[in-house]
Amino acid sequence: MKKYLESLKKELLKLRISEQEIEEILKDHEEMISEALAEGLSETEIVEKFGQPEKVAQDIADSNQTEEVETGNKRDMTLWKTMNVENGIAKTIVNLVSEDISYESANTNSITIYYKGDEDLSLYELSFISGELVFKRRSNFTNNFFSFRSRDMHFIVVFPQKIEIGEFKHNSVSGDIDIKSITSKAIEVSSTSGDLSVTKIVAQTGKMSLVSGDLHLDHCIIERLSINTVSGDMNVNNLVVNDEFRIDGVSGDVKINNSITKMTAFKTVSGDLDGTEFYPESIALSSVSGDINICNQDQSKAIRVLKSNTLSGTIQINHNRQHKD
Amino acid sequence: MNSQFKRGIIELCVLSELVGQDMYGYMVINNISCHLDVNENTIYPILRRLTIDGYFSTYLEESNQGAPRKYYRITDLGFKYYMELRNEWDRFIGGVYEILNQGGKKNEEILRKFEERIAKTKN
To answer: In what helix (H) or strand (E) does residue A255 lie, and over which residues does it extend?
Structure first.
């Protein structure tokens, strides 16, 4: 039994299950195995009954799946590749289709990629040569054409902390994208139907293009930011844009909280922009029926209206406050 | 069998076992594996997962085996989930049987009908 538990522990560690959980799992198995022994099962019968430790550990890791996706940690992800970063990262180019991907950073000197899912890894091209990270799904007619057949796949890319990535380009079709704690000169993300979540990003320029996916921006400092969307909604919190902030949409609504920008230009057909504690120096609206509505505590900070080119839309600044008080 | 599908069935079985009474892990595993041909190692991860999700609570109770046993008890949330799964399963399996029974309910009946049909096409 000891041997069984030891190898189970080893396998669980390999799969990045937390120590606390491992302790609990081992205790449970110790209990169950003693019951089986008391019933008169032999050691070999026990392995037969409970399964090879390797298999048991994998099943446990698999059943952790849902939790993993929510918390975004890597414990049931499989390590794919580690690439040493010696002279910085000049470029990161990622092209995917339906895969979910998370970018994050950690205190390491390498780029590490984890994956989960049973898609064939040979479908992907991955290299890091002279400062350029390239990660692409190989174009393959049947795969693109029958994209509904592609399996659930999730990647995590971990960059070294405190490294500024020169150019960061991501492009995918339907996978969700989660970008966290990245510093880059120029960050460019595009997706058709995937959702995009961007947190704790520092960048000089930012360009995000979505069609129907939703966008969440939180705690970002971006010099110049432009966002293109068609029907997706946008939720922006704690954003600092030192220069221009452009939003081009069609029907999606935009919510901005606790943010500061220089000039904010909002172009839409029918989407609305609702801001609270949103302090742009100036604002421009171009819409058919879309409105801008800003409601701030500090009314001493004036917001200049630069341009209002709209058919039936309105700009209201601190209008609702009087009603509330 | 599709593993996701199988997982769902075992989940339902685990919940069903615990609806009637509190049980310790080995008991759940034994009760299920004597009815279904499943590997025991598939049951434990499900039991654990359902506990993490709040469908079961656990407590320790002394046993005459020596070490105390960890008992699993279904929670209100677990019961609600069980009823949902069970309804879904009943509807699904009912539909499957409706399809299967179109040819007859008993094996002999199905075989007779099939032979008749073969005989007809031969003529």
So the answer is: strand A254-267
